[in-house]
Amino acid sequence: MKTFLLVFYLFIPALAFCQTTKITGIVTDEKDSPVAGANILIKGKVTGSVTDSKGNFEINTTTHLPITIIVSIVGFQKQELEVNTSSSLTIKLVESSEVMNEVVVSASRVEESILLSPVSIEKMNVRDIQQTPSISFYDALENLKGVEMVTSGLTFKQINTRGFNHTGNSRFLQLVDGVDNQTPGLGFSVGNLFGSSDLDMESAELIPGAASALYGPVAFNGVLMMRTKDPFQYQGLSAQAKLGVNHIHEKYTNAHILNDYSIRYAKAFNNKFAFKINASYFSGLDFFATNYTDVDPGTPVELRGENNPARNALNIYGDDEARELEGIGRVSRTGYEERDLTDYDVYSLKLNGALHYRLAENMVLSYQYNFGQGTANYTGSNRFSINNFTLQQHKVELKGNNYFIRAYSTAEDSHDSYNAKGLGQLINKTWVRDLSGNIVSENQADDMWYTRYEEAYNGNIQGVNSSNHSAARAFADQGRFLPGSAEFNSQKERLITTQGLSGAGILSQSKLYHVEGQYDFSNKLKVVDVLVGGNFRRYDMFTNGTLFDDKGKSILIDEGGAFIQLSKKLLNEKLKLTGSVRYDKNQNFEGRFTPRASAVYSIADNHHFRTSYQTGFRNPTPGDQYIKLNAGPITILGGVPDNSKGMTVYQNSFTSASLGPFFGAFQQAMQQGATPEQAIMQSKDFLVKSNVAYIKPERVKVFEVGYKGLIQDNLVIDVNYYFSSYTDFLLNQVVMEPQSAVLGNDGKINPQAASDLLNGDSHLYQLYTNASDRVTAQGATLGITYALPRNYSIGMNGTLATFDLRDANPNNVPAFNTPKYKTSVMFGNSKVADNFGFNIAWRWQDTYDWYGTFNQMRPGKIEAFSIVDAQVNYKVLSLKSMIKLGASNLFNKQIYQAYGSPAIGAIYYVSITFDELLR
């Protein structure tokens, strides 16, 4: 108790006994109209206020006068004023374009002008969010230069920068109020399914490219830092209702309504305590994945199509397996369309509450709780239905103007999630009948189906035309459960609720715990600015044996890191040098340093050149480390030593590439009259002992140069070039382990091990490891923003991204999956008249090939496309409301952003937003 009281008196002074000074005033524009929503902050403190609808504000402080206050709001020049009297203040703000004087935090983890950022950075402020023509702020991120977006479904979008794009991007860090928004089991953020609503978003900052030196291992390809509204600054009741429609003029369904509702309430008491609560709910009919292109690798391209007996349609599942039938040819089973297997009625529910208490004028303690639940469709190695998935987060943070300490936890529950592609394959094993009409067991279903096909095709079935593929298929499919039938629905429900290899259900109840802190010593040291920080994280993985070897136990993974950043201004503050280094350690990998160095040289007040050298790394995900899935003929095995303890596969196995030559040589020797023993001795040296290393982190080194300048106070130019070098990419390698030792005492291939392969005394493994191959990527971006007269603005940007495989094996490198050229143009005016505004965005990207595990790493063409988003809005000032009419993909072009994912059509919507009522 004595210790507690000591801490209490040290950190929570008895402010009630201190003399309080009240500072009041009004903020107006140049026309003497009140400015609502302006932030008023005491410099060097976290104490502040915000102006009400009449421009009035009030701050209570124990700091003795004089003090300096900072007044800021998007669209006006920031002002610093010294206050030496308690008389009411009148502050007049001067309008300026919001793109000219932005302040960003994420580039250096401290506040700085966006013009002086040492690395390329993009930002959306609160006005951008309100004025976006896209259906949500998250969709609008695609308009930023260098950003790639991949849509797997209406509620699941992934963002990436600088190549190696993926539908589930574990190389890109998303933070919401400093909290990592990833689900521990998936190892990446599920878009904004569990993030913030537009109503509570204040800003989003994006760093393209490696940021591990300040943010650790997940920030391999970049960082998206999203910040929600502070309840001290943004008070009152806000609500939004959005009604939309999609599936216009589509083949497989009629037009369908989208609903999106949000509400927010925040209140502050005596400038000491504040709280906020948020709730949002989105629902709609997802985009349909109906690409029925035949992708069967065993059929020549010119023979593929609906009439191909071995047809493997991209979004039909259960037709993936094909066999070569003697005298007939290659034949595949009949599959089910995705739209009959997955849940296209998607939704997203987000609940949030936060409590903020000012312990002192430079110390705020806050607690925040986030709950998210939703359904989404995701393209990975299969098509997955993330169904009623929940994510819960708790965060506690102590924050001052130059430090913070935060701790948070994330817990997921997969609930009813399942593998939709696997579901089609499993249903196909439940209805097959033998030649007598009796349903066979699931392990006999495939063999019996092909037997029926052969018998019918060869004319052995009375009443069925011989040599007719359609007739043979119809006979083999007799008894097939038709989509929508009671039998089909019964098996579908059973398999969805069955987890593990015998069902399609997915189980993950994994957690992560994270604590971090940061302190800025810059105000205490005169010679150099110093920033230090560090974090510790624990993953607590549990799949109950369905993916990991964790039946009845959890798998724990600990990692942590710390960084220091030094910066110094030289040459009359025209040159700013910054250097940082971070050290990270994961329990399964060696410790690693990631340095970063940068220089910004200002040749004039508004013209700044920058250069930087950055390094990054990415730890393998928990799944890469610990998956242990026995999938019958092959076991998928994560690549850390603990995961294969007691096993010898890494030390005692053959490469899969050497198996074919060995079996071929053995058969040839036998045909030439050799005995089995002689044939083994003649062919065994075709086998090659594998040399698979345990996994380690991926690495990248980046060199970057750029220029950002403001010309005549109305034109911003931002140009950037980067060159990246990558090594140690994660990959899978298949090996075969015999029961006997691979090598004999003489160091040569053991004949008994070769015999094991022929006798079936062996097993296939898919191992996680790294490639030593080095590849490079380079690119450039150009952004131009021009503030036109009468409040009009136009922004244009273009991105070039190229990839050089060099001498690397393509099988050892993840797919680049990025268009070479991408561009966008935005034009708008938030105040055409007093109450009327509009915004238009046009995007284009060129053609490229998409490689992914969904199509077994075979290329699929993503055609070039251009789309237009647009909105017009009208403000009803008396009701503090705005009505918006808008469209995403205005001209309803059906476009693909990933091969195997759905085509994206138009969304037309109307919304009404009431902002900060009851203040």
From TrEMBL:
TonB-dependent receptor-like beta-barrel domain ranges (all copies): 369-890
MF term (GO), any: siderophore uptake transmembrane transporter activity
Membrane topology of the entry: Multi-pass membrane protein
Coarse class of the protein's main subcellular location: membrane
Keyword Signal among record annotations: yes
Domain of life: Bacteria
InterPro entries, alphabetized: Beta-barrel_TonB, Beta-barrel_TonB_sf, CarboxyPept-like_regulatory, Plug_dom, Plug_dom_sf, TonB-dep_rcpt-like
Annotated protein name in UniProt: Outer membrane receptor proteins, mostly Fe transport
Species whose genome carries this gene: Ohtaekwangia koreensis
